[in-house]
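Hey team,

Filing this mostly as a record. A colleague (T.K.) asked me to run one chain through the structure pipeline before their review meeting, and I want the input and output archived in the tracker in case anyone asks later how it was produced. No errors, nothing strange. Just documentation.

Input sequence:
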Amino acid sequence: MAKIIVTGGAGFIGSAVVWRLNELGHDDILIVDRLDETDKWKNLVPLRFDDYVDADDFADEMDMHDDTEFVFHLGACSSTTETNADFMFRNNFEYTKLLALWSLENDTRFIYASSAATYGDGSAGMSDGFDHLDKLRPLNVYGYSKHLFDQWAARNGLFDRIVGLKYFNVFGPNEDHKGDMRSLVNKAFGQIQQSGKLQLFRSHHPDYADGEFGRDFVYVKDAVDMTLHFYEPLADASGSDRAGGLFNVGSGRMNTWNALADAIFGAMDMPRNVEYVDMPEHLRDRYQYNTQADLTRIRETGYTAETTELKDAVADYIRNYLIPGIHLGDSV
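Output structure:
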């Protein structure tokens, strides 16, 4: 039986976690996902794993896997423009509760994906932990569905036994299937190849010039390393003193959209050509203008690796994956 379960294992971050586990010599992995009509099955092709189960089927057969040692729950609907709250709550909140309770009942290490979308406009800060969760106001139903589980876990005193990871703006290989939720790097690569220029949103905020607002862009390889930092017990072999809590996963830096554009054009060896266009009105009142992960708490657990500089991460992604058209685990 598989000792590691990765939900969302065919998706972006999930397949990258499986790739890194394979690099570490682990293939006793059960992948749980919903392939639907997307091309994310292509992420699985180069990977090694024991079995695959549809997410809906897994809910009915969980007890068959009660000897599992680790659950990485990375499966969710991550669309920030999704408006079906009922679907979001069932998929992102109820399913996560089910897996968390099952993991705790079976003494299985539970590591799950939260999101920086829980921070909303950032007015309540972006420090992680769970002491100030009630002050946060997510701007969309995706962020709220993630926030709701964070609050539930905190109310029930679970964060001494589980780990939640607030991923910021992750980009990198294996995101092709995400449609409109792909990173700007991925979208821009095709746009620039086709037209020679890149469109960025014009600012609709008085404090920011066009292109001078931005995000904490974190390379998927860094996000995976931070995730797997919690893979092994940090103290004794019994696992009784493993780190638990809610942690930011980001680069620790805010980079502007202009800086990202410069990195993209540089990686493609093309002259900068940016056109600013109006942001759609339905996004303007729920748009995050500035995000930056505070990495203090994950550093305090012993994570010491430096995150990749934006220019270097974009160059690796474009030159080694997008240009040759390959996935993590593929060879040219």
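Quick notes for T.K.: Confidence is low (pLDDT under 50) at residues 233-241. The two ends are 33 Å apart (CA to CA).
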